[in-house]
Every structure is written in structure tokens, then in C-alpha cells.
Amino acid sequence: MSMFQIGLSGLKSTQTALEVTSNNISNSSTSGFKTGSTEFAAVYNGGQRGGVKVADIKEDFTKPGDLVRTDKDLDMAITGKGFFVIAANGREAYTQAGQFGLNDQLYITNSNGAKLQGYGVDDAAEPNIVPGVLTDLKIEGSNIPAQSSDLLNFSGNFSSASDVIPYPAAPDSFDPTNGSAYNFSQSTELYDSLGNSHVLTQYYNHTGANQWQTMYFVDGQPLTAAQLGLPGSATVGSQDVSVDGANVSAGVVTMTFDTDGQMLPLDGTFTPGAVADSNSTDPYNMRRVQLTFSPLDADGNPNGAGDVSLTIDMKQSTQFGSGFAMYTNDANGYTSGEFNGVTVDDDGKLYATFTNGESKLQGQLVLATFANVDGLEQGDNTVWYGTSESGSPLYTTADNGTVGQLLSGQYMASNVNISDQLVDLISFQQNYQANAKTISTASDMMQVLFNAV
């Protein structure tokens, strides 16, 4: 091959390298962009020197870009392996550019309108992820209605070292405003079917060795024995209570503990079946108290909501010599709320959030990996497409050890190092000039030959 062709191959190859470097520099601020590098290979035609060619242009998928914090929940970064899966122009594409938002239909999209893909949820009241089928991720933005409280998980330690304080006998009555009349009290916020808030207060008296008695007040009014239900053959007692200067009858529930400090079944005659009774699991629901009351307004009149039927689950309550301590005081139920945003967990689960503090599962984004990322096909808008060389995508969820960690509130910037690119630019420029010089020299030599003829 002539020196002209060898020099020309050098010019063409170096021009390609300059284009790659220029492209890197121009995308130094592009989210999710991966630095390209040019690989050269020598050419020999039948053993004769043939110059150089561009063997491949590879992108650096191993070096992470800087994390840019935005505190926007739908800006996400993958710190390591994996790509976000998006639907772009009817074709599945993959990207590490993690700047997403909600469009006017509440689909999660990037700035080019491509929809983020993931697993959807079923129609259950408490939604569950439906794995295996990719779908456009969408947020249900309708307001959330109020939910009446129907379960209170309540457990604590009732100090065995506390004083014994029996209930007063008639004509005296229990006075909840007298702090010396009981050992311990605890309040819990409840909600009725209209979302109105109510306060349940429990008063605990240490009435004997390993024995405690409890009364229940809602918005300052005691619940009667008829409003309390116990499991099995357990019975509810009664006690006179002073409320606003008048005596009323309140229901009383008796709790007992064994010598190891574990709460016993409320029905003292209960005999377990094949499964052993346990305070930690309560397999027969023998440590539950049922409350039923009609919600009232501030003036003591019915407020229009339905009756509240609340189960108090007291398993795991103990009586040790240490002080009073709450383990759990968690009631369900909530007032109505308006949609106010989206949050993303580390494993990619998406939740709609509401002004009442509640959240609702909406789906879970997936990440894709490939056997050969260098075989991916580049596309516009910082995306890649699968090819036969890359292999089929393998879908997985974040935070499972096979892909990078998912971070919300930030995105991955370009991994271009400007200093390196400027050095390469100078190097390729010199290379281009040198190849041009070989052509110029060959031209001079040809001119000498022609002049000699």
C-alpha cells in the first residue's frame, strides 16, 4: 500500500478519535453519559503494511459519574451495575440517566417523554407487587378517604415493683384526674369513619400480685362493661368513676401475669390445643380486648360517623421489675388526605404520599443488566438498546446484591473527565498533524521523482 493510503488511514482513524473526544467533551454535563474511547488496530494486507483502522469505540460503564443531589424524589441514581428500563418510541431502551418526573397523566417519565418501566400492583386494599410483567409505572393521585381505626397493637412492661393501688370502694369512686388513683396511663389517637380524631386513654392499676386492672376512656368518657368484649369465658368487671362531678359505671378488664413476667390469657379457664399458648405469638387470640363506641362531637352529640369497633392486641406485654415502658402503641386508621408527592425506597418501591401522613404502594421499578454491556447499541437521549451481542436483558430489583444501589433524591452525572479529554485532544491533534506530514512527505518524494524524469 502506498504511503498516501497509509497516511490517509491515519488521518481517518485520528479524525474518528477526535470526534469521540469532542463528543465526550460536549457531553461532560449530560446525565448518565458514559465516556467513549477509541481503540485502534494495525492493518496488514497480505503481510504488507496497510496503516491503521478504528477497531472499536467503547463506552466506560464501570466508572461512575459524580452524584448530583437534587432532593427530588424521582431523581434516582444507580451506583454500580444496572440500567433503568424505559419505553421510548415503542421500543424498550436502557439508561443510567435518572432524572424523572410525573407527566400530566401521572406516568413517570424522563424529559423526552419515555416512560419508566417496572412491576405494577394488584387491586387489593393493601396493594401487592405483581412481579414478572413490566408495565408503565403510574402514580394513582386521587385523594385517600378516611379509614376508621379497628386495630391497636399495644404492649408494654407493667412494673412489678410498683405500688398496689386498689380501686376505691363505694361510696367513693375512681377519679381519673387524681394522678395517685392509678399507676400508669397511656393515650392513643384513633379515627372514626369520617376521619375525626378521638383519644383513647387507658388507666392501669396494680391491684395485687401479678394482677392489673384496666379502664378505657374515649375523649374523657369511660366505656361501660357492655362496650367491652373479652375472649372465651372472660368477664368484664365494673367500677364507679367520677366524671365531671357525676358517678358513672366503667368496665374493668383484669390482666394477670405468670411468675416469668409473661401475660396470661384473659380467660383464666382457657386450655390450649395442639399449639402451645404463647405470649409472644398469642395463637388463640386470648390477649385481645374488643372496644365498641359511638363517636361523639365536642358537645357530646353523635357526629354522624359509624360505630368504632377496635381490637386491642396486647400480646408481648410483660411484668418485670423494671419501670413502666411502652413497647408498641400503634393504632391503624387515619383521616382523609390529599395526594402530595412520591417517595422511592432503596429497593425501588414507589409510594404515593398524602397530606395525612399515609402512603400507598404504587409499583416497583426494575433494573436491567446484560452479559455484555459493550454490545449495546447507542441511541439518542443517552439511551442504549439491546442487541444479539449484548444478550437479552436480565431484570431484577434494586438492593438485592446483583445490581448497584439505588439512591433517591440525586442523579448520576456524566463520567467524563475533562482534563483527560483535553490531554487526548492534544495527543490526537499531534497525531493528525503527523499523519498529514507523512502524506506531505510522500507528495514531496513523488515531486522529486517526477522532476528527475
UniProtKB/TrEMBL annotation:
Name by which UniProt lists this protein: Flagellar hook protein FlgE
The keyword Lyase is annotated on this UniProt entry: no
Chain ranges of the Flagellar basal body rod protein N-terminal domain: 5-34
Function summary: A flexible structure which links the flagellar filament to the drive apparatus in the basal body.
The Flagellar basal-body/hook protein C-terminal domain, residue ranges: 413-449
Ranges where the Flagellar hook protein FlgE/F/G-like D1 domain occurs: 77-128
Keyword Cell inner membrane: no
Predominant location: other
Subcellular location: Bacterial flagellum basal body
Keywords from the UniProt entry: Bacterial flagellum, Cell projection, Cilium, Flagellum
Xref: InterPro entries: Falgellar_hook_FlgE_sf, Flag_bb_rod_N, Flagellar_basal_body_rod_CS, Flagellar_FlgE/F/G, Flg_bb/hook_C_dom, FlgE/F/G-like, FlgE_D2, LlgE_F_G-like_D1
Family of this protein: Belongs to the flagella basal body rod proteins family.
Ranges where the Flagellar hook protein FlgE D2 domain occurs: 169-334
